Amino acid sequence: VSDVIAVVLFFGITAYALFGGADFGAGFWDLVAGGAERGDRPRSMVDHAIGPVWEANHVWLIFVLVVLWTSFPEAFGSIMLTLFVPLSLAALGIVLRGSSFAFRKEVYRTSSRRNFGAAFAISSVMVPFFMGTVAGAIASGRVPAGGVAGDTWDSWINPTSMLGGVLAVTVCAYLAAVYLVWDAKRFGDDEMVEYFRRRSIGAAVVTGVVALVGIWVLYDDARYVFDGLTSRALAFVIISGIGGVGSIVLLVRANHRGARIAAVGAVASVVIAWGVAQWPYMLPETLTVSQAAAPDPTLWTVLVVFLVAAVVIVPSLGLLYVLDQRGLVEIEEAAPRN
Amino acid sequence: VTPVLLAVDPVPWARAQMAFTLAAHIILVPLGVSWAFMALVANYRAIKKDDADALELAKRWSKYMAVTFAVGAVTGTVLTFEFGLLWPNFMDRYGAAFGIPFAIEGLFFFLEAIFIAIYIYGWKRLKPWPHFWTGVPIVIAGIGGTASVVAANAWMNEPAGFSLDNAGNVVDVKPIEVIFNNAFPYETVHMLVAAYLVGGFLVASVYAAGMLHGRRDRYHKLGFTIAFTVAAIATPIQMLVGDEVARWVYNNEPIKFAAIELVPKSSDDVPETLFGHLNDDGTVSGGIEIPGLASFLSDPADGTSTEIEGLDSFPEDERPTTGEANVVHLAWDVMVGLGTMLTLLSVWYGAVWLFRRRLPESKWFYRAASLAGVASVLAMEAGWVITEVGRQPWIVFDYFKVKQAATGNEGVWVTFVVIALLYLAVAVTLVLILRAMSRRFRAAGEAQRDDDAPYGPRPVPSTARPREKEPVS
To answer: Phi-psi region for residue B405, left (φ > 0), alpha (ψ -120 to 50) or beta?
Structure first.
């Protein structure tokens, strides 16, 4: 059963990367959109694109944490014990991002909007960066098992963690730009379609370069995962590469729907490749999935809850996305009452 | 690289941070759980009776909810992180059991986040009844989510559904027994009613203040009536539930009960001490004693001859310290005292409605009502202080102590300071923004924001700017 739950866990991580990640990426584009005048329209796009959905997308993170601590308590305890600093920073970033985004929608003064906007945008970059360093720390085997803390600083300030952090930020930005092209098209704003199309191509190229550099970093610093990526996870690595290159080609040719599918495929396969490359370890080379697993009745409960979620939550999420895509749920402008 | 950080014992700081972040988050919980219900009441009335005021009320409430829910979602996420960041050994050891209710809570949180988005943002384009129904899952998810989270807390008080092997690992997990532990029904009902009570009083107190300021139009009265009625129904129920819970604590958690009633030594004919102070030598000084009442209330059948176990019946390292016992007792006085006053206020409201079929007119009623929101929050916080401090020094009662559970990270005091400052800033901003929204809603006819775009210039002539982000469809 523990293997199945590990798959469920990675399903959650992938979903968080694809949905939550794109919301953080939108914050990145908000950050680099320029001054109040120039950045007005892209920021408005960001507001409308993520406004109705970011909280639902955020729940994937809760899902991941809960599945991890219930099903693999020893792994959760070890990760939290060693990676106290980046995880605390990520948590602070999450508070800052969520509250400042909600606040920004409700204030009018340009200066207030700028302050909340800056807090929103900076924290949107902070969170994926620190989450990425956590992934890097785990992948490079720097989180020891068994209630012993690893190094407070070196565990997440190291080549693989920096790769993880930068890659997380670029991947989020890439996904967000590709989605925003689609949203701009939906809102019938051709200028913004072009704006985000150019940026998504740029982000895709940068992400690709970071990933290529990453191969050397992993070879040097995270050998177990490197070996996994070049053997059992190779298929996913290749799919990811094809998806990434494919999305660039499709973006250049202005095939937005195809580009979106290719980008989703590319990002999902990267996350899955990481999981497969680590197999059978939860914490590479110290704690395997089956060693970390909770007793079977707990795992079965998690599985049942997951299946119920598949029946109840997936259609609900589908409803939200369909309504969102059809413009049936949207951020309303404040209407004073007469 | 090891930057020099003041190395400080993490345990008290971890406790402080957990207590602070929980205390902050829980203020938003009742709003998340019961405000959607109140908005739906207004929404239902709006559709059924074609009531424009009710419609406006439901719309505005949902807009406030959008903001409070966002802050509640992220402060809740912090708690999720903190279980691991502050108590890694607890999660490592007991996550396999303690985590189960949270797995179920995740389900409800998902449902809540999805439907609150649809409901809040669906006003413009969904049809009235389908839109109304998208609000119903929020109410259900609020109840289910509360029950799940409280189940986890109840399990810490009454751990069940597992055993430990020789190495101290959790084995033989029985998920149903974990969830439906002995304390589960009592704590859950108590908290659910509290959510409606506090949510009702909080919302009503804003309208009471507005009415004191002369805003006595139908819109304000309706807002007050819906919210206060919810609270006024919940409050007497809560007193009965609370009485039941207290007697259950007497029977099942004698240590906590000894702290609540400030009983140093086991005896019968125990007085109910209001306020007062337990000293280290086991004497009680100060306070007002009502002879025999604590014994009588604990078991009315036996009356004042009911024996109550005192703190000294338990080993010193397995019971709350003198200071903690005093905190628990004070919290008890605060909770029961405020609860009693809120009950009287509810009775006042109910009596006027019953005999005169209208709202009370006395200024004193509205003065009291405008304070009821804060009072109810304090009562709820006090209730959590009782259950949490009363369990000390345990994190899992009789199994695992708080100090064993804590992280070894000596920098916790830094995160505590940072998070305290951040939360204070968020709290102040949240209140200011809710107030600004309310002013804006009120300022009828005033220039309305033309554009949602961030950083946008002041909304000067609405024709000057193209409405670029309107969907074409």
So the answer is: alpha
Instruction: Output phi, psi for B170, to 5 deg.
Output: -70, 125
Measured in whole angstroms, the distance separating CA B451 from the mean position of its chain's CA atoms is 36
Report the pLDDT value the prediction gives residue A14, as an integer from 0 to 100: 94
CA neighbours within 13 Å on the CB side: how many for A136? 27
Distance from C-alpha of A196 to C-alpha of A203, rounded to nearest angstrom: 10
Closest A-chain CA to B94: A73
Inter-chain CB proximity A327 and B471 less than 8 Å: yes
Q: Which residues of A touch B453 (CB under 8 A)?
A: 40-41, 43-44, 47
Distance from CA of B315 to the nearest CA of A (A): 29
Global confidence as pTM: 0.89
% of chain B residues with pLDDT over 90: 62
Q: What backbone phi and psi angles, to 5 degrees, belong to B31?
A: -65, -45
Q: Which of A169, A167, A197 is nearest to A182 (CA)?
A: A197
What gap in Å lies between CA A125 and CA A129, rounded to an integer? 6
Closest CA to A184 of A254, A276, A126: A254
What does each C-alpha distance from A31 to A37, A58, A120, B251, B418 come to in angstroms?
A: 14, 20, 8, 58, 23
Name the token pair of B92.
């490592």
Beta bridge partners of B288: B274
Average pLDDT over residues A38-51: 86
Q: What's the distance, Cα to Cα, between the start and end of chain A in Å?
A: 60
Chain B CB within 8 Å of residue A52 CB: yes
Selected residues 154-213 of chain B with any CB under 8 Å from a CB in chain A: 170-175
Backbone conformation region of residue B457, classed left if phi is above 0, alpha if psi is from -120 to 50, else beta: beta
pLDDT in tens, B207-246: 999 999 988 888 999 999 999 999 999 999 999 999 999 9
Q: CA nearest B150: which of B350, B383, B453?
A: B383
pLDDT tens per residue, range A119-147: 999 999 999 999 999 999 999 999 998 87
Residues 343-402 of chain B whose Cβ lies under 8 A from any Cβ of chain A: none
Measured CA to CA, the distance from residue A319 to residue A294 in angstroms comes to 34
d(CA A70, CA A76): 9
AA identity, residue A5: I
3-class state of residue A287 by DSSP? strand
Q: Give tens-digit pLDDT for B301-353.
A: 888 888 888 888 889 899 999 999 999 999 999 999 999 999 999 999 999 99
* A-B C-beta contacts closer than 8 Å: 330
Compute CA distances B106 → B43, B134, B150, B161, B314, whole Å. Answer: 28, 19, 13, 21, 38
DSSP for A162-184, please give it: HHHHHHHHHHHHHHHHHHHHHHH
Angle in degrees, CA B256, B258, B260, rounded to 5: 70
pLDDT at A307 over 70: yes
Kind plus residue range of the DSSP H or E element containing A281: strand A281-283
Task: Kindly report the nearest CA distance between residue A235 and chain B, in angstroms.
Answer: 32
- Cite the DSSP H helix spans in B158-217: 175-179, 184-212
Establish if A301 touches chain B: CB-CB under 8 angstroms. yes
List CB contacts (< 8 A) between A99 and chain B: 70-71, 74, 426, 429-430
Does the pLDDT at position A21 exceed 60?
A: yes
Kindly state whether B95 is in contact with chain A, defined as any CB-CB distance less than 8 angstroms.
yes
Chain A residues whose beta carbon lies within 8 Å of the beta carbon of residue B409: 81, 84, 149, 152
**By the 8 A CB rule, do B274 and B315 touch?**
no
- Say whether B52 sits in a helix, a strand or coil: helix
At how many degrees (to 10) do helices A110-139 and A84-104 cross? Answer: 150
Minimal Cβ distance to B453: which of A40, A76, A97: A40
